[in-house]
Amino acid sequence: MTPVAAGTSTAWTTEDIQAAGSTLRLRKGGAGDPLLVLPHDIGSLDRLPFYDALARRFTVYVPSHPGYDGSERPAWMRSVRDVAVTYQSVIAEINLANPSLVGLGFGGWIAAEMATMSPRAFRRLVLVGAMGVKPVTGEILDQALVSYIDYVRAGFEDQGVFDRLFGAEPPTELLEQWDLNREMTFRIAWKPYMYNPTLPHLLGGVKAAALIVWGAGDKIVPLECGEAYARALPRSRLAVVPGSGHFVDMEQPLALAKLILEFASEQ
To answer: What is the rounded CA–CA span in Å between residue 107 and residue 6?
Structure first.
């Protein structure tokens, strides 16, 4: 996706890398300790103030998920855990040592799966509005029941932020990409929809300190899922960000970056 505006001097590069037999698109910017950021199921804009804020402290890597936003769609891929294993290959391919891991929404589910696979591999784990666990009383919004535009709009508490980022009438190219991304999501996260029943049982083995962040107005993934993650991860705490829906990274980028930077500085 192409951003509406960048507003920062951080230099970013784009490269294609090979992982699990497929070509993935990878954005890189900043300097410092390695930080891998896994985007939402809608994909990501190329430049966001959130990424730039993190890049002042970290070398930030933002891949496009397999089958999303310019990355090749592997014909064999059928589960989120497949994506998680692929990203383990990415980490090996680009030689990241003891990175921190930030997962946004759908990317948070992938990050959680990765942490269960390699319990000591990550310095810090941050899950923001993460899918992956089944809510008990609420529901994860089923994007099959709404249009792809309405799904993205549902992720914002302030619709003005949506309009500023994507336009009140998003361009056709962007709408087509959202539709393709949604198609890939259905392929790998449909039954059961947006959760893995085995994941809660595996989270207790994760050794990394974890920060769970939720938008107070999240209408896509209920807060109870964040509370479940906080209970399941042994070294975790939950922070709720006011004035934000599901897309905290876009609606409250500096507040989220501040939480992560402070968390990363803790001993």
So the answer is: 22
Q: Is the pLDDT of residue 24 over 60?
A: yes
Whether 46 contacts 52, CB under 8 Å? no
Contact present, 149 and 157 (Cβ < 8 Å)? no
Backbone angles phi, psi at 22, to 5 degrees: -130, 160
Nearest to 30 by CA among 245, 260, 210, 246: 260
Distance CA 122, CA 38 (A): 14
What pLDDT does 7 receive?
45
Contact 55, 63 (CB under 8 A): no
Question: 185: pLDDT confidence band, cut at 50, 70 and 90?
Answer: very high
Per the CB < 8 A criterion, the answer to whether 87 and 111 are in contact is: no
Amino acid identity of residue 130, one-letter, is A
Residue bearing tokens 């290959």: 89
Report how far residue 107's alpha carbon sits from residue 80's, in angstroms, rounded to the nearest whole number.
10
- If phi over 0 gives left and psi between -120 and 50 gives alpha, with beta otherwise, what is residue 92? alpha
